[in-house]
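As noted in the main text, all predictions were made from sequence alone. Below is one such record, for GMP synthase [glutamine-hydrolyzing].
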Amino acid sequence: TVLVVDFGAQYAQLIARRVREARVYSEIVPSSMPVEEILAKNPAAIVLSGGPSSVYEPGAPTVDRALFEAGVPVFGMCYGFQLMAQTLGGTVDNSGAREYGRTDLAVSKPSSTLFEGTPAEQAVWMSHGDACSAAPEGFTVTGSTDVVPVAAFENDEKKLYGVQYHPEVMHSTHGQQVLEHFLYRGAGLTPDWTMGNVIDEQVATIREQVGDRRAICGLSGGVDSAVAAALVQKAIGSQLTCVYVDHGLMRKGETEQVEKDFVAATGVQLKVVDASERFLGALAGVSDPEEKRKIIGREFIRVFEQAQLEIMQEEGPEVAFLVQGTLYPDVVESGGGTGTANIKSHHNVGGLPDDIEFELVEPLRKLFKDEVRMVGQELGLPDEIVQRQPFPGPGLGIRIVGEVTEERLDLLREADAIAREELTAAGLDREIWQCPVVLLADVRSVGVQGDGRTYGHPIVLRPVSSEDAMTADWSRLPYEVLSRISTRITNEVKDVNRVVLDVTSKPPGTIEWE
Ligand code: XMP
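Prediction:
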């Protein structure tokens, strides 16, 4: 395992993904983790991430010198690079020599471990205030920029490497190659981590965890729960029953899709529970987003417990396990990975009630979304499931800003179906990550239709492009497509007289509105 030490911001997750793209398994640990604990995990190599701090800020995260003396190969990036420089006796000054964005790096030692075979001049992505002016003793300077004399260094004997820039971002043209040089040449690792391995390992783990008891799995229609279910089905076969809770917050045609496509692909036992009245009842009068999320999470579990009882009556042996499609970013964002602030209580992690009666099976807990898709493909699931855009567990319940009612759900379902239809017709499904359609139920605006004044609700389109949902940008959709969606929605959906486009990136906005 390669450990990525997280010094804040969003860099660590991206680095972890890049390491895995190099087919080496990686995990994230918080920078607050004591060095003994980090080393006790026996890492094959360590990457120190960038972060928002300056090494001169009081209270800025530091790193224990022992980390560099344990004989484990270390690669410092940006803030991690400066920490490495400072801790080992180099000079870092905050002379105001700042660089942001695209910069040219001049490689000064073409035969170095990191840069061999890459161009002498290469575009790199910088984001720093302080700069290293002298490398620590024993280190060779391997690159510089116009502003920074020491922009990359290495001590090959001690297996310590660093770059001032961010090799993990796309704009650093040879970043992935440099990272791979560190992993393969510097740390001597072999690229042998594959989805096949993940499946074998998970199948064995699940078999051991579940034994001869039974598990149930909630299917949401999304990729994650589908792949989790297929994986558990492979491990324990008929000891698994899938439960599909129709909470009434689904999109148009979704229930039928699960019943048809998924069962056909896996042959899994499926129990469909119609619980829409129960969810709508519990949500009556509630407009607060977190409260909605908690209620939906709680009711989910209750419905599963009910399903568990029924399945036990039918099948006999104990149903002790609940399978969930929790992903690595959910774990990290809910504070499980890095101590990062809790941004939203994703209902499959933070929003669980305390009195839960199942043991959880979470076979995707260490995977990123693109890896889940690869696992799904490997397991033989059809493209309609594996390439499906993400849809949140709480469904349309968190896409109605205001109270959730049957009438509003029907209205949103219509608008959403139109948007999806047009995006698919325009061939844009692969290009956008997802496109939430949001009803601003508490907002009304004046319009005119036919000869009459209307006083209706706005619908928000939120098309985003993203690699992992951690950060996102709004998609620049063609005007004609937007226009068609807008015209159709305002013509075909009762009580909607305005369509607006959300042009906010994440951060500062999140993808969903609640
Ligand atoms: P945000 O809104 O946090 O969304 O930028 C990031 C991604 O997560 C999805 N999402 C959820 N998925 N349960 C889920 O399974 C949830 O409670 C949940 N909330 C948000 C969202 O659609 C986006 O893909």
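Residues 90 and 136 are 4 Å apart (CA to CA). The chain is about 35% helix and 20% strand. These features were considered when defining construct boundaries for the mutagenesis experiments described in Section 2.9.
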